[in-house]
Write a structure and sequence with these properties.
This protein is α/β, with parallel strands linked by helices. It has three domains: 127 residues, 3-Layer(bba) Sandwich (FAD/NAD(P)-binding domain); 123 residues, FAD/NAD(P)-binding domain; 111 residues, no CATH class. α1 packs parallel to α8 and α9 runs antiparallel to α10. The protein starts with a strand and ends with a strand.
Length: 432
């Protein structure tokens, strides 16, 4: 009996979750242009070299084939939902009975003149390694140099934190951030205020309410007309919808693909949208845990559709965010409370280790060795946060350079129903 053909387009969190969910009663093919899965939420740690590239990388073929599925490395250049076909860049075609689209997002800001040529994005391990190497060169040069982070969202804030983690006391490096709105717009304003306090202590120049009009070698032109010298410009200003969504008729031009409550495409019942690609009526954060949950539901609903059952609605998990700022600080954010403190960075590391172990379950010798290597890399003395190293016995301890090198417990920044007031001088929160 011929098995139904399910194709998963994209091998990120959503795509891999969908592949894990589907059993061998389906002929599943996961297609992605990259051979390796990259743990994107922790790419920023490559900037400070706190993580090694190998710690963030897993082979997609191994992750997919262990479930009895097929991995195909190719770039999809066209989707024909009417004929239920995909066309790849090498001229091949792939038929499907159900399609899960989990393509993620594309680099935004290409419309800004010079952004593609003169700024580095942080979208891959290769980007992170290059940024880390460039920072090291600039710091070693000794002469005054300027580093600019464009974008104050999750990626920009965490990238800036990693730069400060390693280079905040290198006087030759002038560090700045440009953000059109406020830091982590969309999150409680208490997070913005707390971040500004930390950033202010590290002599970072903030350009809030400003946007970039153009880039040229060594220079940034702001929309206000000002020009800034920049020896290294990092473009972290979010991501946008892949053009393939609109070209396939799954989304209006320049927009995400509308998805029903069942994650089915608004236009085609046999196409399911998961992860960053989906535009839901109830907006959710484009985070890895949401993408994983959407991938699982999309796969379950594809199976239900193929067996003549009604797809079920997607129930998003509650939003619970952990944002790190190097080891200088961290934030836990949910609907009820905001906590701030460097100790939260350890919780983020634990989530990384659990997430990688979930993807690469240590049931076989190879996966077990990779798990031990990741833990060993995280625990190596040179990568330990300074607050931990300050507690080690001589001669391993490091003399604290500033308050960020001292251990600190999380503190309450915001509580639902209370009006927080941040005392910048005392570093305390008063709830009225």
């Amino acid at each position: 009996m011929t098995r139904p053909q399910v194709v998963i387009l994209g091998g990120g969190f959503a795509g891999l979750a969908a592949a894990r969910q589907l059993g061998e009663r389906y002929a599943v093919t996961l297609i992605d242009r990259g051979a390796d899965f990259e743990f994107l939420p922790n790419l920023h740690e490559l900037v400070s070299r706190a993580k090694k590239p190998a710690s963030l990388r897993l082979q997609r073929s191994r992750l997919v084939t262990r479930h009895g599925h097929v991995f195909r490395q190719a770039e999809v250049v066209a989707i024909d939902p009417e004929r239920r076909r995909l066309r790849t860049g090498d001229g091949g075609e792939l038929a499907y009975d159900a399609l899960v689209v989990a393509t993620g997002s594309a680099v935004a800001g290409r419309r800004v003149p010079g952004a593609a040529e003169h700024a580095l994005p942080l979208r891959s391990i290769a980007n992170g390694v290059e940024i880390g190497a460039r920072l090291r060169q600039l710091a070693a040069a000794g002469a005054p140099r300027a580093v600019t982070v464009v974008g104050g969202g999750f990626t920009g804030v965490e990238c800036l934190g990693e730069i400060l983690r390693r280079y905040r006391q290198r006087g030759a490096l002038a560090i700045r951030m440009i953000e059109p709105r406020r830091l982590l717009a969309g999150q409680p304003r208490a997070v913005h205020r707390a971040l500004r306090q930390v950033i202010g202590e590290c002599d970072v120049e903030l350009f809030l309410g400003e946007s970039v009009a153009g880039l040229e070698p060594g220079w940034i032109t702001l929309a206000s007309g000002s020009r800034l010298r920049s020896d290294l410009t990092l473009w972290t200003a979010g991501g946008g919808p892949p053009p393939l969504l609109a070209e396939a008729g799954l989304a209006p031009a320049g927009e995400w693909a509308p998805a029903r409550g069942s994650l089915q495409s608004g236009a085609y019942d046999d196409v399911f949208i998961a992860g960053d690609s989906a535009e839901l009526r109830r907006a959710v954060h484009r985070q890895s845990y949401q993408a994983t949950a959407m991938g699982r539901r999309a796969a379950k609903n594809a199976a239900r559709l193929l067996t003549g059952r009604e797809p079920k609605p997607y129930s998003p998990p509650d939003d619970q965010l952990l944002v790190t700022f190097g080891y200088l600080s961290g934030f836990y954010i949910d609907d009820d409370v905001v906590l701030e403190g460097a100790a939260l960075c350890l919780a983020r590391e634990l989530l990384f280790q659990i997430g990688m172990a979930e993807l690469d379950r240590p049931r076989r010798a190879g996966a077990h060795r990779r798990l031990l290597r990741r833990i060993r890399d995280a625990a190596r003395l040179g990568s330990l946060p300074a607050p931990l190293r300050s507690l080690l016995p001589f001669p391993f301890a490091r003399t604290p350079r500033d308050r960020f090198d001292l251990p600190s417990l999380p503190r309450l920044v915001k509580l639902r129903g209370a009006r927080p007031s941040l005392d910048a001088a005392a570093g305390e929160v008063r709830l009225a």
